[in-house]
Structure formats: C-alpha cells, structure tokens
Amino acid sequence: MVDLNPTPGIHHVTCVAGDPQRNLDFWVETLGLRLVKRSINQDDPSTYHFFVADAEGTPGTSMTFFPWEDMKQGKVGTGQVSRTAFRVPEGSLDYWEERFDEYGVDYDARVERFGETVLPFRDPDGLPVELVEVDIGDDDPTVPWTEFVPEESAIRGFHSVTLWLADPEPSMDLLRTMGLEEVGTEEAQGDAPGDERTRFAANGTVGKYVDVLPTIESGRQGHGTVHHVAFQTPTDDDQMAMREAVSSKGLRPTQQINRHWFRSVYFREFGGVLFELATKDPGYTSDEPLDDLGGRLVLPGEFEARREEIEANLTDVTVPRAEPVEADD
C-alpha cells in the first residue's frame, strides 16, 4: 500500500438550496463570504453551482450550493451532515447576534461545546449552521473577506461538521483510517437527538473537526440539507493513497473525476453520508484572476460550447455588492 498522508481536514461542504438569488443574498451579504466561483452543477448543468469562501478561496473555506429550485424542502436526519460550523474570531459573537437581528436571521441561544462558544442559526432554506469562536493566529492560512463584514468578525473557514449516524462505530473507524484522531466525548445538548457527541480532529488548521452523534431520526435530501462533505487530499498521490485505504475498508470509491478546480473521488461512508476527497490544485484562480473571482459565469470544459443554451435555462441573479463609502470632503 502507498504511504497514507492523513487528511488535514475539510476541503468544502456542498448543500442543496432553493431560490438562487436568496441564497446569494444571504451567504454573500448577510454572512459576508466572497462568491469565488459562479458556475453550474457539472452533473446537472440546468442548475447553478455557487462557491462562497474567504477572500482567496483557500481550501477549507468554501461552502458550495446547488440551488435546485424545484426540489422540495429537506429534513435533516441519520446518514447526513446535520450541522456545518464556521470559525469566527474570539469575541465576535456579539457582533453576529446584532447582525442577525438586523437581517432577521433565525438563530438560537449560544451553547458551550468542548470548551468553545457556539452560535447556532439557520439560513433561509433552513440549513443548520453554526459559528464557533476560536483564536485566529497570525499565521492562519485563511484570508478574511471584508466587503460586508469587518476583519475582526469575518468568518475564517470551517470549524467542523457534525454527522448524524444510526450506527456510528464503522464510520468512526473510517475517520481513524483517514487520519483523524478521537479527541473527546461529551453529552449532546438540545441540538440533536443523540446522547453523546464524539469529536475527531485532523492535523490541519481549518476544518479540522468532525463530530459524530448517534441518531435514528429519519431524514430526506432537499432544500436546507447538506449534499456532501469533501475532505482535503492535497495531491493526486495523497488522494490515490486515501482511495486505496477507503477501498480496503470495503467501501467503493469512484475513479478520480476532474472537477476543473480540483480532482475528486466520491464514496458513501458506512452510515450513508456522501464523502468526497478533493485535491488542492488547480484551485479557483486557475480560470479567473484573484481580483475577478465570481464575477462571471464560468462554464468548465466542454460546457463552454453550450453557453447560450445553458444561460437561457438559468435564473438571472445579481451578486450583492457593498455600497461604496463616500470620502469626507
């Protein structure tokens, strides 16, 4: 077997949304993330694929969305990512609660989890999301986007995902195989029907945690649910080694698929959650300059030849832009 480099953590999380304009308004303006790629679902080019992230689209910061307008409302349950959590700087949750009040965001009271303060909320499609206060070091790899939110409060990539699983043990063994280490357990609070939360940690800085909760709560995919979670396998060699390790556990990963901004391998883990392995390169600046990320509809590969047909079937959207601040006379 090829030597296995542990995953450093989450690469991206992809979710199902409804109205595309509402999705952009919330994630770009209300939450202050940057639209780093405006594209299409490469398996269903009749719908958009939006990528929001930090200022540079750093691995471990991009939340992505398929706005399938005709799909029904989903329900979070077993075999799904039940919560996606983002890091924010220590002391910034007061700012976020005030902002949520201003924008009418549905949020809950703060909770303490593994010694950290967590603010749970939901996006307009009902997707469960959390902000977690952490110490952001000077050497942090993320770059805050400050068009709508000041640097001292800006979201700085993923903190964790929470998996709801009917039988957690095989999935936890898989996480260990992927290089994550069990770092603690604590009693689950009111955010889940399980009775114990187990935390696993990768060796990276961003998106390093995966929490596991047992539940038999039934769910269905639709608006407001996570489609899949992608873990970083920075190089092709890392990815192939991880693919081999996953196969050795009896799972059936796909062959490598070129997703234009990264190369991917997919598989369903034992509990039913769709996992992806994603490379670091070529990245979001491979087809757009850094300053222009998200500025146009990017149609990868063979889809460019179908631009007129594809654009005709997509809902028109406008990317939120902050009003320029006028200088004092």
UniProtKB/TrEMBL annotation:
InterPro entries membership: Extradiol_RC_dioxygenase (IPR052537), Glyas_Bleomycin-R_OHBP_Dase (IPR029068), Glyas_Fos-R_dOase_dom (IPR004360), VOC_core (IPR037523)
Keyword check for rRNA-binding: no
VOC domain location: 9-134, 157-280
Pfam families: Glyoxalase
Protein name: Ring-cleaving dioxygenase
Source domain of life: Archaea
Keywords: Dioxygenase, Oxidoreductase
Gene Ontology molecular function, alphabetical: dioxygenase activity
